[in-house]
Amino acid sequence: MSDQSVDGEEVRHVAALARVDLDEAEVEAFAEQFGEILDAFETLDEVPEVEREDDLENVMREDEVRESLDREEALRNAPESEDGYFKGPSVS
Amino acid sequence: MSGIFITEEHIEGDSEGPLSGATVAVKDNISTEGVRTTCGSAMLTEYVPPYDATVIERLKAAGAEIVGKANMDEFGMGSTTETSAFGPAPNPAAEGRVPGGSSGGSAAAVAAGEADVALGTDTGGSVRNPAAFCGVVGIKPTYGLVSRYGLIAYANSLEQIGPLAPTVEDAARLLDVISGPDERDATTRAEGKNSDYASSADGDVEGLSIGVPTELVEGADEGVRETFWDAIATLESRGASYHEVSLPSIEHAVAAYYVIAMSEASSNLARFDGVRYGPATDREGDWNEVFSAVRERGFGEEVKRRILLGTYALSAGYHEKYYKKAQDARAWVKQDFDDALAEADVLASPTMPVPPFEAGESLEDPLQMYLSDANTVPVNLANLPAISVPAGETDGLPVGLQLIGPEFGERRIIRAASALE
């Protein structure tokens, strides 16, 4: 049995945050699997705090106008467009 | 052999070069101008990129002929190529078994002789795993060696495009073509410029010091372990020596890898909203409702699972517990590898702890599938290069040997791997 139990309500909540609809069967299956998978992730609790040694540096370029995709190309894969714009559902 | 390619369309090279006359299969998450690129997903069934990935430009300039877009686990999420929305790919080297994944179509194309070489991508083993399962060679380059421009992202901080080929030298030659800095990918580094990896496939391992991380051998199947030790004995007989090493951080690598990869995926895949690309839906409603409906329809089960778990790991109250701890584990794994590689030229392990799964075997239990990546994911966490080379067989099934090198130590792992051919 899983220590980290996840119920259907939590799965629905996180699915809503991620904007993915799920059917009932998926909610049930995920609730069971997530408990088991999150249990496995629990082992991260034993990891000590570790000093990072990354030597990161910014990579910058000149801020100059360049060629880019033209509008028609950029819109080519959109299911719907209008007057040179992407067309989406209303925001609210 | 059906199931290897999602789209079989030829793209001719546009000049003479080191790959003139060579045919290449390209994993279907690498953008090809004018040729559809699906990521193995119903979300992108109709998607035709308006531009080429940098690696595709380099293939064309090198004279290669692309023969098709290879099947893959949906968005690279899987270890068997069974999560593809276009159906599974076969394993030409082991009938009835999966070809591994997520670059299973690329490995299968090479194993079946449908392409001379192939490109895959490796986020947590997705080049090395199918190379091992199909009995071919696969290289995961150092992070930053190969441009990811035009690669449809799954987990940016982990993934690299890498070659698959029948021989170490062929894989190295393809790596020579695709490596090197690219101003369109700010994470690329100068080291791959004017590389000559192919010439290092000379089989010379005299004096080579090999570290064997015990944690990566102990958990493997008996037949895999036997094949692995036979290959180490072969390297010894050619003048190499080995010693065992311990990497205590390794037991946390799978958890850390999946937390980071899923978190990055949940963010990266937010772009699939049904507006710029994606299947049309007749669902009425506001943005959120239509967005959610498109994603229910366009994404398969494994992709939904990872997006949801990634969203969970990043959500309020859990970020410190999962994501931050995973980053600590990542830094620890990197330190462990650096320490081990200070005492050895290369590290060796079985690529996969098991022989190829039977088709359909692993789909019901996602956690078991994640755990099978135990030997490959630590390399991605540490940003290091690794190669999988055929080591032999167990019960007639291919076994791969993984060699891991220091950052930009591609020549060293290529040389060591070539001694096993």
UniProtKB/TrEMBL annotation, chain A:
UniProt entry keywords in alphabetical sequence: ATP-binding, Ligase, Nucleotide-binding, Protein biosynthesis, Transferase
HAMAP family reported in the protein's UniProt record: GatC
InterPro entries for the chain: Asp/Glu-ADT_sf_sub_c, GatC
Catalytic activity: L-glutamyl-tRNA(Gln) + L-glutamine + ATP + H2O = L-glutaminyl-tRNA(Gln) + L-glutamate + ADP + phosphate + H(+); L-aspartyl-tRNA(Asn) + L-glutamine + ATP + H2O = L-asparaginyl-tRNA(Asn) + L-glutamate + ADP + phosphate + 2 H(+)
EC number: 6.3.5.-
GO biological processes: glutaminyl-tRNAGln biosynthesis via transamidation; regulation of translational fidelity; translation
Bias kind Basic and acidic residues: ranges: 58-75
UniProt keyword Plastid present: no
Protein name per UniProt: Aspartyl/glutamyl-tRNA(Asn/Gln) amidotransferase subunit C
Job of this protein: Allows the formation of correctly charged Asn-tRNA(Asn) or Gln-tRNA(Gln) through the transamidation of misacylated Asp-tRNA(Asn) or Glu-tRNA(Gln) in organisms which lack either or both of asparaginyl-tRNA or glutaminyl-tRNA synthetases. The reaction takes place in the presence of glutamine and ATP through an activated phospho-Asp-tRNA(Asn) or phospho-Glu-tRNA(Gln).
Family: Belongs to the GatC family.
Pfam families referenced in this protein's UniProt entry, alphabetically: GatC
Keyword field contains Transferase: yes
Region listing for Disordered, in residue ranges: 49-92
One Gene Ontology molecular-function label: ATP binding
EC category name: ligase
Subunit comment: Heterotrimer of A, B and C subunits.
Automatic annotation (TrEMBL), chain B:
Active site: 27 (charge relay system), 102 (charge relay system), 126 (acyl-ester intermediate)
Name of protein: Glutamyl-tRNA(Gln) amidotransferase subunit A
The protein's enzyme class: ligase
The organism of origin for this protein: Halalkalicoccus jeotgali (strain DSM 18796 / CECT 7217 / JCM 14584 / KCTC 4019 / B3)
EC identifiers of the protein: 6.3.5.7
Coiled coil: none
InterPro entries given in the database record: Amidase (IPR000120), Amidase_CS (IPR020556), Amidase_dom (IPR023631), AS_sf (IPR036928), GatA (IPR004412)
Xref: Gene3D superfamilies: Amidase signature (AS) domain
Phylogenetic placement of the source organism: Archaea, Methanobacteriati, Methanobacteriota, Stenosarchaea group, Halobacteria
Molecular functions (GO terms): ATP binding; glutaminyl-tRNA synthase (glutamine-hydrolyzing) activity; transferase activity
GO biological process, one term: translation
Keywords (A to Z) from UniProt: ATP-binding, Ligase, Nucleotide-binding, Protein biosynthesis, Transferase
